[in-house]
Predict the structure of Alanyl-tRNA editing protein.
Amino acid sequence: MKIPERYLDPTVEIREVKRTDGKTILVATKCGLYPDGKGGQLGDRGKLNGATILRIFENGEETIVEVEGIVEPGVYKTEPDLSRRMDIAQQHTGQHILSAAFVHLAEIETVSFHMGEEYFTIDVDVPYIEPSVLKEVEDLANKVVQRDLVVEEILTTAEQVGNYNLRKPLSEKINGPVRLIKIGDFDVSACGGFHTDTTGQVGMIKIIGTEKVKGELTRVYAVSGLRALRYFQKYTDVLKELSKQLTASVDELLIRVRKLQEQARERGLLLSKLSEEYAQVLALKLRDESQEKLLYLEGYTEVGNFLVRYVDLNGRLLVFYDGSKYMFASKSYDVRLLVESLKQTYGGKGGGKADLANYQPDRPVRQEVFVELFNNLYQHVQEV
Ligand SMILES: [Zn+2]
């Protein structure tokens, strides 16, 4: 692994130990562990004198190490988690290769880079990338991996950097020593993170998604190394399960899902048609058999929606309950009065227009309540 010189010796010198909120905070004057977020990279984890390292961050000249466990001030040789270092190296090197592939193939430049625990992202300077271009870039990046090129670490200075063909010019603010990462004849970039010794150790680079960000940039999500394998394992598991549940081979899954969507749409239409017909029948029955001014009905929401259309609501108020919320409709009584009155006693939310409103109570409302409320609220109302 290509590890910057200052992190080769993982010795930590602790000047002070503080305990806050059940955490042990170590103030280190010298720290051979890589801090979180530095250069967009993940920080080291591992053990420090038996204590588990939780977080590492730079604070001016000193480094703060948060651990779980008891540690006294002193000098300690820590044990950084090497498989994590390798994972970080795979993501970093993978990112250099991917960013370089975007330049080689499509002159798309990387503006920024971020490494997360699940994937890494690069923001590139175009608002959209054709899927075919993404595929070509991914292919080229993986060919570079398969060429197993040597990854070199070159220590130079800002003054001498002009001797190298850097993918991205060095910021003018930087002076003094500069660390370059050279990947065969494919890429040279200034970088202070962990990298693999060869491109072959990156294993694989997989783009897993894109998203438009900040108006004019595209964020490319990708994984390398063992993370790429984990990604495929997860997706194959999901596909296998889907294929089992839908009794279709993976190749037939898309056709099967489209068929199911079509069926669901057809059934939805049929359900709507049946609900409408049922509402029409109910409305006829109510017209012929009931003289009540207040109609109380329970049933499916779909039926309720149609009932409002078909029941003669002149001189009547319809209360329809679908098991969770109420619908009130009338052409003669302002149903908002009913909603407001119910809210005062039963809480919940609701509202609407004078002739149609919805209401969802916090507590159950007994059916008799509507009769009482109707008589109280609308006794002086003249029927239209
Ligand atoms: Zn790097």
